[in-house]
Design a protein that fits this description.
173 residues, Immunoglobulin-like, five-stranded mixed β-sheet, 10 strands, elongated
C-alpha cells in the first residue's frame, strides 16, 4: 500500500509540474508580435481619465492648473506594457482648435517596461500648465503604449498605440 501511495504522489507531482511548465507566463509573451485583433482587444482593456486637481475648470489668467491622469487596466490577465518616459501620459491643450501646449514638453527616450495586473492603474498628478491668456481651452490626455517590445516591431507607428481620455474644458478669466 505504501508503494502505491508513493507512486500516486510522484505521478501527481509530475502532472502538476508538466502543467505549470506548459502554462505560458507573462514573460514568455515578451518577445511575441501581436496580431491586429490582439492589439485592438488590448486597447479596449485600457481607459484614460483626465481630471483637474484644483477641482474647478474656471481659473484666473496666469494661474497654474495641474491635471490628474489615470490609466486603468480592465483586462483579465497580466499584460506587459512599454512606454517612453517616467509615465506614459501626455496632455495637449488647445485654444480655438490649435495646440498651445504639450505637457510634458519633452519626452525622454527611456523605454520603461511594466507588467500591469487586472484592475491596476497608473496615475500622474505632476502635469501642470500656466494659463496666461483669457479664453476657453480644451485639454485632452493620452497614454502612449506599446503592447509588444518595440525592438521587434516591423513599423514603429504600428507599434505605439495612443489611448485618449475625455476632453476637459478650462475657462480662463
Amino acid at each position: 500500500m505504501h508503494r502505491k501511495t508513493l507512486f500516486l504522489v510522484i505521478l501527481a507531482s509530475l502532472v502538476a509540474i508538466t502543467a505549470i511548465a506548459l502554462t505560458p507566463t507573462i514573460y514568455e509573451q515578451k518577445d511575441r508580435v501581436l496580431s491586429e485583433e490582439e492589439k485592438a482587444k488590448a486597447i479596449g482593456d485600457f481607459k484614460v481619465q483626465l481630471s483637474l486637481l484644483n477641482g474647478t475648470n474656471h481659473v484666473k489668467a496666469g494661474e497654474k492648473v495641474c491635471f490628474h491622469v489615470k490609466l486603468s487596466y480592465n483586462g483579465t490577465s497580466p499584460r506587459i506594457i512599454y512606454y517612453g518616459h517616467l509615465h506614459p501620459f501626455r496632455i495637449e491643450v488647445y485654444s480655438d482648435g490649435e495646440a498651445v501646449a504639450k505637457i510634458p514638453e519633452i519626452i525622454l527616450t527611456v523605454l520603461n517596461t511594466r507588467v500591469i495586473q487586472p484592475s491596476e492603474s497608473l496615475e500622474s498628478s505632476d502635469l501642470c500648465f500656466n494659463f496666461e491668456e483669457r479664453g476657453i481651452y480644451k485639454a485632452v490626455a493620452y497614454a502612449e503604449l506599446a503592447f509588444e517590445d518595440p525592438i521587434y516591431c516591423q513599423n514603429d507607428k504600428q507599434c505605439w498605440q495612443r489611448i485618449y481620455s475625455n476632453e476637459l474644458k478650462v475657462v480662463v478669466e
